[in-house]
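Marked as duplicate of an earlier ticket. Keeping the data here for the record.
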Amino acid sequence: MISPIRDFLQKQYQEEKFMSISKGWLGLAALAAAGFQVSALAQSAADHDVTYNGAVGKIINENCVVCHREGGIGPMQLTNYDQVRPWAPLIQMRVANREMPPYAYDHGIGIQDLEGDWRLEQDEIDTIVAWVNQGSPMGDADVVVAMPEMNDPSEWNFVSQFGQPDTIIPSISIDIPANGNDLWSNHYVPSGMTTDRCIKAVQVKPRGDAKAVVHHANSSVVLEQPDGTLERQSMLTEYAMGKWGEIVPEGVCRTLPKDAIVSWSIHMFPGGVGATAPGTMIKDNVVEIGLWLHPEGYEEQAQYKQDLALYQISPQEDIAIPPNGYSMTQGFHSFDHPVRLDSFQPHGHLRMNAASLEIFYPETGRTEQVSQISKWSATWHHSHIYNEDVAPLLPAGAVLVLKQWYDNTADNPNNPDPDMWVMGGSRTGDEMTHAWLAITHLDDEGYEKLVAERQEKQERSLAGND
């Protein structure tokens, strides 16, 4: 049951009236009563003065401004105190409940060491909560909060790590109307590859204002056969709303072959989904794939191949979520050879609200929790990339257990109509039940080598702590 306080807060946010809330009224007791996650450490943060020009501005600049700035995808700008102050109660609510930054991945369950993890540390959350409770003071006016260096909002996400993409593969130009039914575009474009290359990183980026209207954009590698037919080789990459991109681990190769043709499958929703939906026509939209490539010859050095693939959880035609009801799907996958699981990205639509990944080991009967996302949202898809030192190593026969949950009630803020049946399908109003997994395929020798290397690192770490 949602408390009256939380119900009031959500109503105010939905009606965009948070700016009228009196400063600093939302205390620790109110947050706890509303059902929000409030750390016991927050009280200690409240025992000393907290100011914007002290600690808070730095936290916001380093974690929020990347989206909340001019040209960014956030619905308001948060680049200085005057912009932040009116939104302080809303910021407190969203941060205390771990809804912002928008990276839904549960704490304390499974692997926590992720590449590109947006989540705030608990002490940062406590600092913001205490600041608002103290009236959101600015602090010393002579102090200037430094703005971190960041890419232009239209820039590629991995520029600071890898520079500009080595190649960009655009889709054809597509007009997206302001309203109407779901649209799909399926077409082919040449990759421009003159030699086989290994992918280092990849990002898919809709141009301009189309981020909220491009529901997904999948791309496959196709090769022309001697008889002129086109044969699909593998998945190139997957994109869904909000996805940052993918990084391929060192020492493995996700191959983009010579003379490859890219098969695009782009799903668009006129008007858009989420807070930044433009609700206007998008003319001449192009979706681009940015590829960062290893030097020629890297494929010969790489010991193993990696691929990205869709892993079905249950037959899509079996999905039938009743009005004002709930549903859950579960699926199992195993391999006849050892593998390393490099990333996990669950996928669904507007009624999906949670997902998990486990590994079952038949020889011992043990089940290991790997990842859980309890507040999943279709407006932010994340490829959860495991740090190479902790990415799950599965012996042959181990079973991946994938689960997803669906909420077709009015409590689901993304639900457009809780009174209708929801079936499996490709439209935005339908539901899906699958996950995208990046898998490095090993042999027995490689598996045993990686297990031994991890054990050696762990022993060295333990010895260093003595």
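See parent ticket for discussion. Residues 444-464 form the longest helix (21 residues).
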